[in-house]
Amino acid sequence: MKRLKPLLGCIASLSILIGGISQGQSLVPTALPPEEVAPSARVARDEAAREAFRNLNFFSQGGGMHLPPNLWALMKKPLLPLANRPYFALEKREMSRRWGINWIGGKPEGIFDVRYKNHEVGVLGCVACHSGKAAGQFFVGLGNKNIDPSRIGRDAHLLERVWKYLGHVGKKDADYKYIESSAFEFSRTLGDPSYGNLTQGLVPTSNIRTWFYKMAGKPLPKVFPRSAVKVPALWGYGEKRKVGQFCDGFGNGAHPGWGIAVELAAGQRVDVVRDYLPKISAAEDMLGDFLPPKYPFAIEQTRAVRGKAIFERSCAHCHGTYETDPAGLPVYQAPKYLPWEMVETDRDRIDGITDEFLDLVRASPLNDVVQNNADKGKGYFAQRLNGIWARFPYLHNGSVPNIESLLTPPAQRPKAFDLRDAGEAYRFDPNKLGLTLPEPGSPRKASF
Ligand code: HEC
Ligand code: HEC
User: Fold this and answer.
1) Which residues line ligand 1 (CB under 6 A)?
2) Which of 45, 73, 104, 119 would be a feasible disulfide site paired with 289, CB 3.0-4.6 Å?
3) Distance from residue 314's CA to the centre of ligand 1 (Å)
4) Which of the pair, 19 or 230, is modelled with greater confidence?
5) What value does the CA radius of gyration of the chain take, rounded to a whole number of Å?
6) What is the pLDDT of residue 4?
7) Closest CA to 361 of 167, 217, 213
8) What does the angle CA 336 – CA 234 – CA 208 come to, to the nearest 5 degrees?
9) CB 386 within 8 A of CB 22
10) CA terminus-to-terminus distance, the chain
């Protein structure tokens, strides 16, 4: 991004433009897309896909991302019968502030009660990470800006130990024991401090890599990058997967395999994953129907027109051009991939993709579906910018709080910023387009 220096001063127009793009608005009439679809059909498909994704989890045969039996059911109960306060130990404050779970309509988002063989199991679904808030609005398919997998793992592990030895009374049947040990494996991997995330809002993809080492019976290498990245927005994924999954294009999106990598990392069995490959495939296909969230504030059209010209001159050769269908909805395109030398953001994500790791991917028991793209994994996508207003903090590593900072030379960007309530309305700055920052010299700044 160091190439953006000459663009200082154009921020206002650019930010307005990006708002325009996010709405899928067309400033200049564009040609009809090749496949014309009635707008209401696309909107209806988007709504149906979001609803289905919101309710999706892959807990199966007692394994996956979950807690031990009955622990979640207990956590949901009021502490005192008269207190009328559900989630006794875990009110909004703990769930959203400490763990980054979205708290929507009085409930934690992406946590499910599943009944399995006479046991109540608390299960984590995809939207625990793949939904989030921006400017006070909640969007399924936006990345969770505050999720803290490491802390969830460490806290869950502690609670699970207490529950195992002190909480549960009565005999444990074989199913109970399996679910319990699988929950322990998940929380141990998630909470491992040696490769976990160090700040909120970042997910260590090192977790996923551990699975391949485990399958091969190999110890983790001494240098094992955390490769923590922000959770990406999923709209446009239908086109993106054709050129590669993830921020570095490393995953081959022709097969559904990587979509379930989190479940494998959580300890799910290979035979179980094989059984539900069609379900994963359907889930990934459904992401192609998502539409970007509309920019909720006013757009000044004259500045937007000016910004569009700047964007076309300075950004479009990497981030592409943007077309809309007759209803003003985006016609998705695949992003362009750039080698790291062209980008020069941090390398931690791609440094995890070593030759040894690639050998393990090729040798894994799921190597017919979980495959890499040999030509990628050494750089980053210049992501398509649909709905970019909601996707802060920016870059694959979430290191830039707003667009104004992004268009500033790296040395002048804030070194630290506050993620508290990142998706709430009061944290959205429509002028900087993204997170608010403390006023220069304000007392808040001293706390960094
Ligand atoms: C712990 C948080 C977390 C959970 C839970 C999670 N994901 Fe993800 N997901 C991520 C992160 C982080 C990435 C980006 C990884 C990268 O770019 O290196 C990602 C990437 C993806 C991608 C690729 C997107 C792209 O732009 O290439 C797909 C598809 C996906 N996830 C599907 C799923 C599905 C399906 C589930 C539920 C089984 C799920 N995820 C659960 C964090 C999560
Ligand atoms: C040389 C190619 C190139 C040019 C020119 C370029 N970008 Fe980027 N941009 C990238 C790449 C690559 C990334 C992803 C880097 C990363 O995540 O590490 C990126 C990331 C971004 C992001 C963050 C996306 C996200 O999901 O967080 C925004 C916003 C952005 N660019 C806006 C712009 C704007 C506005 C311009 C023009 C002023 C521009 N870029 C010019 C290559 C480019």
Assistant:
1) 58, 124, 126, 128-130, 147, 149, 203, 205, 229, 231-232, 237, 240, 245-247, 259-260, 262-263, 283-284
2) 45
3) 30
4) 230
5) 22
6) 38
7) 213
8) 90
9) yes
10) 25
pLDDT tens, residue by residue, 227-246: 999 999 999 999 999 999 99
pLDDT tens across 294-351, in order?
Answer: 999 999 999 999 999 999 999 999 999 999 999 999 999 999 999 999 999 999 999 9
- The CA-based angle 381-128-55, given to 5 degrees, is 110
Given ligand 2 and candidates 319, 345, 404, which is best to mutate, with the most ligand atoms within 8 Å of its CB?
319
Record the tokens describing residue 18, joined without a space.
Answer: 């990006």
142 lines ligand 2 (CB under 6 A): no
Please give the structure tokens belonging to residue 249.
Answer: 């294009």
Tell how far the Cα of 416 is from the centroid of ligand 2, in angstroms: 20
- State the CB neighbour count (10 A cutoff) for residue 113: 11
> What distance in Å separates the CA atoms of residue 383 and residue 343, rounded to the nearest whole number?
12
CA distance linking residue 346 with residue 411, whole number of Å? 14
Burial class of residue 419 in the structure, from the number of CB atoms within 10 Å of its CB (0-12 exposed, 13-18 middle, 19+ buried) = buried
The C-alpha atoms of residue 120 and residue 70 are separated, in whole angstroms, by 5
Report which ligand 1 atom has the smallest distance to the Cα of 128.
5
The model's confidence at residue 107, banded by pLDDT at 50, 70 and 90, is: confident
Angle at the Cα of 11 (from 5 to 17), degrees rounded to 5? 125
What's the average model confidence in pLDDT over 6-30?
A: 36
